[in-house]
Q: What sequence folds into this?
């Protein structure tokens, strides 16, 4: 069964606007972590943000925020004030238990238009 | 945060040959992982590189095809053996920082093309 689902293959956003990338997950663990990564065309994986299952506050890192809705098992990434350099593939990932293995979603391609 | 380097950054290889990819971390880490990303696909975990013991492979990956070494807490190698065009992928090593930061970093990747 798919553990991480990203339903948006691609999205376009106007520069300076906000964009929300959807991510739903499936786990029976009580303790888990959710990650978002950015992958530009160079292929590197850039860590953006982390949300723990027991964290009461939504995680924020600069222009990135994670909208964590535990009951709905969703962990959407919000990028505010989009910049041209935000154009990339974005992956949602989950880490269950404490083994540090990551399961990835299919990814969402974001294209920022000037 | 951990600084991770990989060598080579890219390579073009002939079918039937082998390539060894190196991953170096600037600090000692308990766990290191190897992932594969086939063209247009997401990342898939190949194995956990264990220091002092054999690597632990995920379903669909075997030691004969992807032998892994972990001689110390800062270094690991992944070999892609007897390559075929289906092995053309980006190979990435990853280390968790653990603790309160809960970050998990990736190396810059090795882009492999098999002809």
A:
């Amino acid at each position: 069964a798919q553990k991480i689902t990203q339903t948006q293959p691609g999205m376009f956003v106007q520069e300076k606007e906000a964009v929300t990338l959807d991510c739903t997950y499936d786990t029976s663990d009580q303790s888990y972590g959710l990650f978002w990564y950015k992958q530009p065309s160079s292929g590197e994986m850039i860590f953006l943000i982390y949300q723990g299952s027991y964290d009461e506050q939504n995680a924020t890192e600069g222009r990135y925020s994670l909208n964590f809705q535990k009951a709905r098992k969703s962990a959407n990434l919000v990028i505010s004030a989009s910049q041209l350099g935000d154009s990339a593939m974005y992956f949602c990932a989950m880490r269950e238990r404490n083994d540090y293995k990551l399961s990835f979603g299919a990814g969402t391609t974001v294209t920022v238009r000037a | 945060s951990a600084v991770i380097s990989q060598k080579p950054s890219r390579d073009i290889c002939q079918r039937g040959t082998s390539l060894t990819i190196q991953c170096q971390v600037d600090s000692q880490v308990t766990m290191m992982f190897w992932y594969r990303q086939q063209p247009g696909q997401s990342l898939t975990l190949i194995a956990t590189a264990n220091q002092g013991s054999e690597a632990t492979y995920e379903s669909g990956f075997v030691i004969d095809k992807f032998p892994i070494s972990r001689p110390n807490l800062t270094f690991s190698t992944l070999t892609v053996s007897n390559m075929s065009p289906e092995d053309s992928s980006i190979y990435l090593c990853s280390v968790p920082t653990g603790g309160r930061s809960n970050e998990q970093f990736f190396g810059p990747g090795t882009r492999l093309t098999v002809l």
Notes: Chain A has no helices and twelve strands. The interface with chain B takes residues 33, 35, 37, 42-45, 47, 50, 52, 91, 93, 95, 99-107 of chain A (CB under 8 Å). The longest strand of chain A covers residues 88-96. The mean pLDDT of chain A is 94.
